[in-house]
Amino acid sequence: MTTSRSESVDGLRFRQSAGVDHAQLAALRWDMRMEDGDEPALVSRDVFEAECRTFFAQSGRMHVHWLAERDGEILSTISVHMVDMLPRPCKLDDRFGCITNNYTRPEWRGRGIATQLLRHVTAWAAAEDLELLIVWPSALAVPFYTRSGFACENEVMELRLREYVPIAGVQR
User: Fold this and answer.
1) How many other CB atoms sit within 10 Å of the CB of residue 98?
2) CA torsion 91→148→101→106, rounded to 10°?
3) Helices (DSSP H) in 36-150: which residue ranges?
4) Helices 22-35 and 45-58: crossing angle, nearest 10°?
5) Half-sphere exposure (Cβ direction) of 35: Cα atoms closer than 13 Å
6) For residues 132 and 72, what is the distance between their CA atoms, to the nearest angstrom?
7) pLDDT tens track for 55-106
8) Whole-angstrom Cα distance, residue 96 to residue 129?
9) pTM of the prediction?
10) How distant is the alpha carbon of residue 120 from its chain centre?
């Protein structure tokens, strides 16, 4: 397993994202959030993608975006939000990662691409000396993460502070 920034396997290239990827990553983010149809769009796709491109460009050390690509097309992506931890007596400077934005284009699913990509992400996270990776998977994604060694260790509790209400006239 490699922890390098880029590796090619079976015509697929696994790497961290660069500026040239932001437009494709933004489009994939829209597709992911709209796929299930249970989240209303509050802005147009163009506005959303422009905001995402800005976010990706400014995310710096706090977010690391990984992708699997073939011939310049991003097939799968996983983002890791880095969280600095408060100092502890056992380790003064520590971090963990929260996996988010895990998406594979529908026509590329079932081929092991996301599994390979997650292997690169976890190897990179270990090389970065992160304490752990966490994820809040959908019910459909639980088996995917379980096969990759993730386990339910703690129950996450949440307090929903707002709902998303569709704005009239906004097109998906």
Assistant:
1) 15
2) 170
3) 45-58, 113-127, 142-147
4) 130
5) 13
6) 31
7) 999 988 899 999 999 999 999 999 999 999 999 999 999 999 999 999 999 9
8) 9
9) 0.85
10) 13
CA nearest to 50, candidates 81, 25, 86: 25
Q: Which SS3 state, helix, strand or coil, does residue 149 take?
A: coil
Residue 99 in contact with residue 130, Cβ under 8 Å? no
Q: For the CA atoms of the chain, what is the radius of gyration?
A: 17
Residue 47 makes CB contacts below 8 A (sequence gap 6+) with: none
Tokens standing for residue 123: 């190897």
Q: How many whole angstroms separate alpha carbon 67 and alpha carbon 98? A: 16
- Name the residue with tokens 């994939």: 28
Query: Which DSSP letter does residue 154 get?
Result: S
Over the range 68-80, which residues count as b (16 or more CB within 10 Å of their CB) and which as e? bbeeeebbbbbbb
Instruction: Give the C-alpha separation, 43 to 135, whole Å.
Output: 27
